[in-house]
Design brief:
- It is a single chain.
- The chain is an alpha+beta fold.
- Helices cover 33% and strands 44% of the residues.
- A hairpin with a 2-residue loop joins strand 6 and strand 7.
- 23% of the residues are buried.
- The longest helix has 26 residues.
- It is elongated.
- The model has no long low-confidence stretch (mean pLDDT 93).
- The protein starts with a helix and ends with a helix.
Length: 158
């Protein structure tokens, strides 16, 4: 027989895993209006050692800026994760294969990375939400600069 405490822990671990998977599904679907389902309002993301994005609106805008074009198809393969839940916080290291493929005018360009994403979630009344994540890339394939050049150039003009 499983104790109530064990059942609650497993339920939390499954819920945390579900939020992480949903985050990547929303990115791949370019469903920008639904990120309130997975991110806190004051979320932060460290994409590089030098770049910290603060706030859900800024994070969604920055993500849309990079991969929101119909000329870029993304697919995030999320692998092994084991959430560690302590009360109303959870930490999980997510292993990700992030594939980005150019179509139309960007046909033939691609960028792929293999990395880990340490992620902190917090329990809110509406459920678990991502409060912070980092992207630590181990392997890069293709050319980020070539695939994302139009978006990078537009960002510099902002």
């Amino acid at each position: 027989m499983v104790s109530d405490e064990t059942a609650a822990l497993v339920a939390d671990q499954l819920a945390v895993t579900g939020v992480v998977l949903r985050y990547f599904a929303l990115v791949d679907a370019k469903d920008w209006d639904r990120f309130d389902e997975v991110l806190t309002e004051d979320t932060t993301a460290r994409w590089t050692p030098e770049r910290l994005v603060e706030g859900r609106a800024n994070l969604v805008d920055a993500t849309r800026h990079m991969v929101g074009s119909d000329e870029i198809v993304t697919y995030h393969h999320v692998a092994a994760m084991a959430p560690v839940v302590q009360g109303d916080t959870a930490d999980v290291v997510v292993r990700v294969r992030a594939m980005h493929h150019g179509v139309g005018p960007r046909e033939g360009t691609f960028y792929e990375s293999l990395g880990v994403q340490p992620t902190r979630l917090v329990r809110r009344p509406e459920g678990w939400r991502i409060a912070h994540h980092e992207w630590q890339i181990s392997v890069k394939l293709g050319s980020m600069e070539q695939l994302f050049a139009p978006g990078i150039a537009a960002g510099k003009r902002r």
